[in-house]
Specification:
Helix content: 40-55%
Number of strands: 0
Order of helices and strands: HHHHHHHHHHHHHHHHH
Distance between the termini: 46 Å
Number of helices: 17
Largest sheet: none
Radius of gyration: 24 Å
Shape: elongated
């Protein structure tokens, strides 16, 4: 996640119009940009924004959640927290080995149309975190946030250290994996599941033939937003600021990922050369032909799919369309207004462009002489990128709303993790579920 970009974007949308940062704003001018906002807010609300920016890792992240990961690694030094996290995640591991999930009929684990059910009903993860935090909601959110903010880039293996008197584990405790029920939509609560209408819209654009079951849910966006938003909510930051901050953060994250495409464009021009012509270009005709751009692209096609010709062409078309979509954006008036993909320019500019030419289809972004199929490929890529914005924003707002509902406001000098050691003493006494004592539908043990 490019968080310098993210930071600039958040500040751009939070500041009033009269204090909007100039185009091409640089990191060194951040204090000047942030000063008007700080002066307009009570100390407690400024602290909430500062906490939020700390947990998401401003000036650290690039494409992954390294900022959150680093923050979580540091906070594990809090007294008893690593032991409590070990109890919580060891119990999760036990649950996943004992309890049953409905058989997965989908093409990918934890797909877009997946819903928490069976022995892992909606809200099961939040209820478990509350149980292990001894009812302390901020501590429960921290336990979930250690691993739930991402299904790959989590805290370091071995970060959780079981207590000496632990009944669950004396060895290594790891985070849940991408296919585990933690990341099934609804594990926090049924209200955090995306609306069916939006999921159907996503599937129409990104998987028109295979449907929702072929697309990943990416529910970690929702969990991560609930966790990080809680840092603002607990300090009493007003709803209008938390909404703009969260929307700004995720739009800047998505825009930054697309802007990275601009950096990696290795071949420009030849917009009117079809993908088929590139793949059929004779790179063996002359020794000098090997240095032609077409031949370099053919080598890329080989890396994408080897010599499987139908798959090779399909993947190459997508790859070429992505490059061309990024290049067309770079040529557009949207991009040329700033001539760079950062700062104030990210104030919906990237999203607006791909919505106009992709999802909405109001205009044709392609050169007149471009083959129709290649132009169609480009518009499909643009539509995919545009719907990514909509999906990510919806997931993050669902996470924010969950935080608003469940994260209590605390005092200025109050430690949100003050009850960790007491919670650990209680958690150690919680018996793990065994195959013989599975809860029945009423919630009581057999």
């Amino acid at each position: 996640m490019p968080l310098l970009i993210l930071t600039l974007f958040i500040l751009g949308i939070l500041l009033p119009a009269s204090a909007s940062p100039p185009l091409g704003i640089r990191q060194s001018s951040l204090p000047l940009v942030f000063t008007p906002l700080i002066k307009s807010l009570p100390t407690s609300e400024v602290q909430g924004l500062t906490d939020y920016m700390s947990v998401i890792g401003v000036q650290v992240d690039r494409q992954e959640n390294n900022g959150i990961r680093g923050f979580n690694t540091k906070i594990l030094k809090h007294a008893c927290l690593d032991n409590l996290a070990a109890e919580f995640y060891a119990d999760l591991q036990n649950d996943m080995s004992v309890l049953r999930r409905p058989k997965n009929q989908n093409l990918v684990p934890n797909s877009l149309d997946g819903i928490s059910q069976g022995d892992f009903p909606p809200g099961w993860l939040w209820k478990k975190a509350l149980k292990f935090s001894n009812g302390k909601k901020l501590l429960a959110m921290q336990l979930i946030g250690f691993c739930g903010h991402d299904d790959v880039n989590q805290v370091e293996i071995g970060s959780f250290k079981p207590a000496r008197n632990s009944k669950r584990s004396s060895s290594r405790v790891d985070c849940p994996r991408a296919g585990d029920p933690v990341f099934t939509p609804g594990s926090l609560g049924a209200e955090t599941i995306l609306p069916l209408v939006l999921k159907q819209k996503i599937a129409r654009i990104q998987a028109p033939k295979k449907g929702m079951s072929a697309l990943p849910a990416k529910y970690y966006h929702t969990i991560g937003a609930a966790y990080t938003s809680c840092f603002m909510v607990r300090r009493g930051v007003p709803d209008w600021i938390t909404s703009r901050a969260v929307k700004g953060a995720i739009n800047a994250y998505r825009a930054g990922r697309i802007c990275d495409e601009l950096i990696h464009i290795g071949w420009k021009g030849h917009m009117n050369t079809s993908a088929k012509q590139i793949l059929e270009f004779n790179c063996k005709s002359k020794p000098a032909a090997a240095s032609r751009p077409e031949c370099g692209l053919q080598r890329t096609a080989d890396l994408l799919a080897g010599k499987n010709l139908p798959v090779r062409e399909k993947k190459f078309r997508r790859y070429l369309a992505s490059i061309r979509a990024a290049e067309l954006f770079q040529r557009s008036s949207y991009y040329l207004g700033a001539k760079r993909c950062d700062g104030h320019q990210l104030n919906r500019t990237v999203r607006n462009y791909f919505e106009e030419y992709g999802t909405l289809g109001r205009s044709n972004p392609c050169p007149t002489a471009m083959p129709k199929q290649d132009c169609s490929d480009i518009r499909e890529v643009m539509a995919t990128w545009a719907i990514d914005f909509e999906r990510d924003e919806a997931q993050h707002m669902a996470g924010l709303n969950f935080a608003r509902k469940n994260c209590p406001v605390i005092g200025k000098n109050e430690d949100p993790l003050a009850h960790t050691c007491a919670a650990l003493k209680a958690a150690i006494q919680i018996p793990p579920i065994s195959a013989e004592k599975k809860p029945n539908k009423s919630g009581s043990a057999k």
